[in-house]
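We modelled the chain as a single entity of 322 amino acids. Its sequence is:
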Amino acid sequence: MAAAARVLLLRSGRPESVSFAQSVCGLLGAGPELGPWPTHCGLQRGQLLLSARPFPGASARLPLQPSPPGTELPTNRGVDLGVAIVLQSSDQTVLLTRRTRTLRVSPNLWVPPGGHVELDEELLDGGLRELWEESGLQLPQGQFSWVPLGLWESAYPPRLSWGLPRYHHVVLYLLVVSQESQQQLQARIQPNPSEVSAFMWLGPEVAAAVAATEDGTDTPRHLSQDLPPSVLAVELEHDGGAHPLDLPLSTLLRTTPTTTEGEERVSTGTKFALRLWLQHLSRRGVTPRPCASGAHVDPGPAKEEQNVGPLTPSQGSGKPSA
């Protein structure tokens, strides 16, 4: 089946495929504002069905965020589908991995585990498979819950100064909440060195600082001078070992550079997902614990909040509750 069939739009009552050159956000009627826009979503096996209006079978109402404007796309290909797993430990930290420098797409970027979904896979199953392939983590059935967070329309390279886009995806971010603590999960991590060069766990306070530097937003506000100068990560070695890494916080606060590809930073889509994760915690009354220094970061106005409908997490595998 052609790649165009991975993302379908419900327009005039019929599902339609999207070509590589078309903007999913634009076809759904998004305006010139930065977004995101509320989008009704059907999570189907190996596919996404999207609509600007409610439709029978829609299982979630999610915020859809486009890449920064100014991208031109070729016309002879379709839009592909990816799933990323925002894995949350029981003590409210999330896992990010740094992609290796040798990968063709998004080298040296910090992202949650994820990748392509096969045509015969449920979207959650595809995300959990990617989590296992990249981190070695397999989550025991019945010991986690999950909920869709949002959608990100992505073109790579993200800037024309880096060359014409070679990839066009809609990425579905799924929040998977484990019953295990960060320490328990970390004890079982076995990263794939062909895809992952380092990993780390972010708590809400540092995640808020990172999310506040999302491309296309205002200059970050309320970044306290008391924030830790570095974040503890684990870096893989060529011989298969690993060592602790004090990663400068300034590295995580970088935005997309104009001309340099491969600069270490957190991807723009990941920052969007972190904002949605923080809003998810806030709606459930979770107050971010302060840093050791007592710092607290205000991530700024929750502009996505109005676009997220209430969703009940599902236990284990299967489809989410409506």
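As a brief sanity check on the tokenised model: The radius of gyration is 19 Å. The longest strand covers residues 144-156.
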